[in-house]
Amino acid sequence: QVQLQESGPGLLKPSQTLSLTCAVSGGSITTRYYFWSWIRQPPGKGLEWIGYIAYSGTTHYSPSLKSRTSISRDTSKNQFTLQLSSVTPEDTAVYYCAGGPDSTRHDYWGQGTQVTVSS
Hints:
Elements: E1 3-7, E2 11-12, E3 18-25, E4 35-41, E5 48-54, E6 59-61, E7 69-74, E8 79-84, E9 93-100, E10 108-109, E11 113-117
Parallel strand pairs: 2-11
Antiparallel strand pairs: 1-3, 3-8, 4-5, 4-9, 5-6, 7-8, 9-10, 9-11
């Protein structure tokens, strides 16, 4: 059973860089054709896909966040990381990591982590 666990700071100030890590167990992030995504849900809004890193290391980002987003991985630790720069209060959300055997499938989810941006 694949399990994902997010970790990172819960409170940031505007202009700082958000950094979250997703540790994956029960499966390898290099398993062929698997994609590993970051998704967020602002308060009172729906889910918003941020981007993914594929089994090959290829990345793809939401056009609306692309200029501020970077997703990387550490295969030795079987984890992947989200960095979102220049955060504002509008980036306040519950952030989830997810994975699945297709770029649009999210079969496995972390429990989510609250990130608040406030001065």
